[in-house]
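Quick question, first post here. What does this chain look like in 3D?
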Amino acid sequence: MDERVIGRSGQRASVVGLGTWQLGADWGDVDDKEALAVLDAAVESGVTFFDTADVYGDGRSEQTIAAFLRARPELDVFVATKMGRRVDQIPENYVLDNFRSWNDRSRRNLGVDRLDLVQLHCPPTPVYSTDEVFDALDTLVAEERIAHYGVSVETCEEALTAIARPGVASVQIILNPFRMKPLREVLPAAEKAGVGIIARVPLASGLLSGKYTKDTVFPANDHRTYNRHGESFDQGETFSGVDYESGVESAVEFAALAPEGFTPAQLALRWIIQQPGVTTVIPGARSPEQARANAAAAALPELSAETLAEVRDLYDRRIKDQVEGRW
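> Answer (accepted):
Ran it through. Tokens below.
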């Protein structure tokens, strides 16, 4: 699989990575055997980039990755984790002492002395403008606790603020055919600054797979049930902030745009890979089959100008007004 440089880190990531939120929690139940099988299918399909967080299953995702990599020492996988969502979301919590504590925990969970990449996990907006926060991150690098740092953001404005920071290696942001606003300013600014872009929620929480109907029922412990209206965390993380019923209707239109040989999910992933400035896209997977199908998108032909225009038209007609004012 093709690899791209992760911004200022100088390290490389497969163009399709693996997001591992679902291996920890919030997507229904996934047992350890299934989780390890997903990781195995991903790497056997060419994936060299895993994204996790200390809050996914309160450490379970990190620990699962560690167990997998211990059993496969021949693998060269770049692991990015995130920190900051296990405490109250107030700027005062984003200080060096807490960073060291969170870092110690993630290093234990992942079984390493130094973390490849640590991202602030969608912190309160003022954090991005606080010099002391980035001084503290620089200290973690100097102490060899982390090799590089980045941020995960909710809004385009937060992304642009972070890109201006000289030590930020990467920005993780929601980007998919139902969330196009980052194309206007964020991706060009990141490319100019040499900052990597990690595209998350690429399938709009599965909407873009075309598998769901208005009658689909998700488990009670799945965020697509309990956070549909932003009850537990930012609404944009669930279905990209798109109203579910209208999202299902739009997803039917989107699926019809898939070229021969593409699934709707692969169309979404291929669309993201083709956007200038994107480093890697991190779909999740609940089964080995999903992991393999996601990875296969990297080898599919480039989308035609006609297909790209049709995807844009669908977004402009049905989605844009729902999301662009908020994120």
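Residues 9 and 169 are 5 Å apart (CA to CA).
The beta strands are 3-5, 12-14, 18-19, 49-51, 78-83, 117-121, 149-152, 168-174, 196-200, 280-281.
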